[in-house]
Please model this.
Amino acid sequence: MFVGAKCIALCDEFGWYRENFPSRPMIVDGRFLFLDNRPQTVDHGQSSIVNGQEFGGYMLDKLNEIEKAALESLSAIADQSALDAWRVANVGRSSPLMQVFAGFGKLSKEERPVVGAEANRVKAALESALEEKSQAVKNAALAKSLEEEKLDVTLPGREVHVGRLHPSNQQLRRVLAILAEMGFQVYTSREVETDEMNFQMLNFAPHHPAREMQDSFYVEAEGREDNPILMRTHTSPGQIRAMREAAATNPQNPPPIRIALPGMCYRYEQITARSEIQFNQVEGLAVGEGITFADLKGTLTDFARRMFGQDARVRFRASYFPFTEPSAEVDVECFVCGGKGCQVCKNSGWLEILGCGMVHPNVLQNGGYDPKRYTGFAFGMGPERQLMLRNKINDIRYFWGNDVRFLEQF
Ligand SMILES: [Zn+2]
Model:
């Protein structure tokens, strides 16, 4: 302590210096501090002279000031960046507080523990206040983000569009599933056919009037005038291919056949609400020894019940197809009105669902099966037509129009 020292402390730069000053001037808060015993503080430019006060006491006051100012500015802080700046300014290496620590060398032995203890207390107080504030700022930021980024579960989500099978394929698979239960294997045949397979082998002679029912897409190919290439007009050429394939395995005793032939068919038609140039067919073929029309009736009646319900009534009407003899068309009792008569069944109470017949002997012969020994039946139906009946679709063009509004209803 400078008790009774009555010293005058002056800066070197002012040119005068007294030997009795106990130590060189120290820097506090960026300014030179001097002590003298004069009654007033004299400010020499950058320097200030603290008068009439012991240096240790002054340091204690200074620490109090530092603490008060630091805590005050800390209380106003609300965000992390301001907090970081505060940390540098108040507990950083060149902060006023740290400069007090740096000035300990200037204190006397008696002063050092007192000022040191106080400086440590202020340092701890500032650090704990900083810790507390830091936590508060973090909590506030969290609360703010929770508030601002709140998840609004009442917002409708974005709809996920899930693809699915085309309605024709759905119906095709329904039909095939039923036929599979009844022991029919699926046989897929080519869509590009020859006139021979599509017509001649199925008992359509060239210039046969029945060809008129199936105007076709022919492919231009030189030298094939007697057997042009065309898009198949029905799935029936698959009958010949399947029979020949099976007969080839054992020409003397061809095995029995029970197959379903699904697929796309093409006809040169005017596109209207009732006719399209492409459509699916599913055809059934059973060939074996001793197969009769009773088997045909029983099989198709069973099929209709599996398809339209156990109470479905069916009726057979005589018809004509070149590749079957005798031939029939099968009606199922209208499932819309239950047979009473409605728009869908045109008040007849019946809906036509398929054509069928006993395989013509010429067709069996062409397939490699001896018609004297083997008989068989065949039937064909259109999945799109079944869907139209079932769902009251009045225009077949919807099926290939690629209109999602139509397709997504299935
Ligand atoms: Zn009806």
Summary: The pocket of zinc ion is lined by residues 334, 336-337, 341-342, 344-345, 349 (CB under 6 Å).
